[in-house]
Structures are given as C-alpha cells and as structure tokens.
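Hi L.,

You mentioned the student needs an example of a multi-chain input paired with its predicted structure. This one should do, with 201 residues in total across all chains.
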Amino acid sequence: MARSRIPPVPAAANPGRPLKRAFFGRSVHEVAPGLIGATLLVDGVGGIIVEVEAYHHTDPAAHSFRGPTPRNLVMFGPPGFAYVYRSYGIHWCVNFVCEKEGSASAVLIRALEPTHGIAAMRRRRGLHDERTLCSGPGKLTEALAITDAHNGLALDAPPIALLARIKKPEIVAGVRIGITKAVELPWRYGLKGSRFLSKVF
DNA sequence: CTCTTGATCTTCT
DNA sequence: GAAGATCAAGAGC
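Structure written out for the whole complex:
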C-alpha cells in the first residue's frame, strides 16, 4: 500500500483542542451555552454535549442554595472541576463547576451525542439504540462510567477530557427539567434540532 | 402517544 | 420522615 487513506470519521467525531480550566472562570450563564458542541470524554469514551442546565447559589433549585454541605462542597471550590452527586438513590449526575471559588455555580450535563467508544457505552447501558444511550443526566454517567469516584476531579486532566467545539452551533434555551423550585427560569440549553436530547425543547 | 409507579438511598428538616 | 437536578417498564388511550 502506497499510503493509507484517512478513515471517514464524521466531523463531529473530530473535535478541537482541549478546553483550558480558565474556560470555566466565567458566569455560569456564559459557560453553559458555551459547552454545547464541546466533546466530553472519560477514559476516551463519550460524545458531544448537546444539553446542559445552569445552577447558581442564588437559585432555589441549586444544591448550593442553602450553603455548603459535605455533598455540595465541590461546588463551592474553584471552577473547572467535576461535581458528582447521587440522584434518587440510584443514578449519578455530573456537573462542571463555574465562575470562581465560593460562587457555587455549576452546569449539569444532561445529554450527549455518542461519538467515542459507542460499543463500551452500549455494553454499560445494556442498550443498542444510540439515540437514547446518553439522552439524560443519569444515562450518560452510566454510559461513561462516571461515579462518585470522579467527584472533585479536574476537567482538564485524565481520565477526563473536554475538547472545544469547532463551529459555533445553533443553541436553544428553555425551562429546566425535573425541578420543583424556580421552574420558570430558562436555564436549560441545547443543540438545536439534535436527536440526542433528553427532551425536545 | 401520555400517564403512573417502583426502584433505592442520601441529604436535610 | 420526606423529598429529590432520574429512569424504565407497564397500563391505558
């Protein structure tokens, strides 16, 4: 063979450079939509972030609203780290801490478009359908094998990798899902028209 | 398609 | 003791 052909990977599976930790040192309302289109990998498995929600300590729906506790301590720390918590006693959910130390704001990662390690994700989820592999905060942590062992880990160091999007995507916003307080705030962001959302906007 | 319910457990009141 | 940033399966339409 004279020269091997470049394999035909979709553009979506060929993301940009790693995001620096400083990316998170801004308002959660800038970071949250800014994450749509970025690629999240844990041990090389993951996909494109297509849905997130913003939480802030002034927001009654946020875990940090009533001040620091053992569970939410990472939220009160510096930006650029993962906050993982147990949901309904069954699932894990992952957030990215934003702004600055003490501001206790974070972005909940709610859905991914699977691109890397799809076979591993199918195995962990016991599911074949790609569309629903990571279409929810509890689903994507199962697919990426995220647990409380990842709580407090840096977002720019192994096993976590976060790669910038190549093009600026079209973003839609709406009210958040599954909360009972501050339900009217439009702090859920998604990739317009994506098939991989937890719920259509 | 929508609606209801069970699973399971940590956190805070 | 109740609620919760969820999910999947089953019933009903």
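You could point out the following to them. Residues 176 and 183 of chain A are 7 Å apart (CA to CA). Confidence is low (pLDDT under 50) at residues 1-5 of chain A.

Best wishes,
N.
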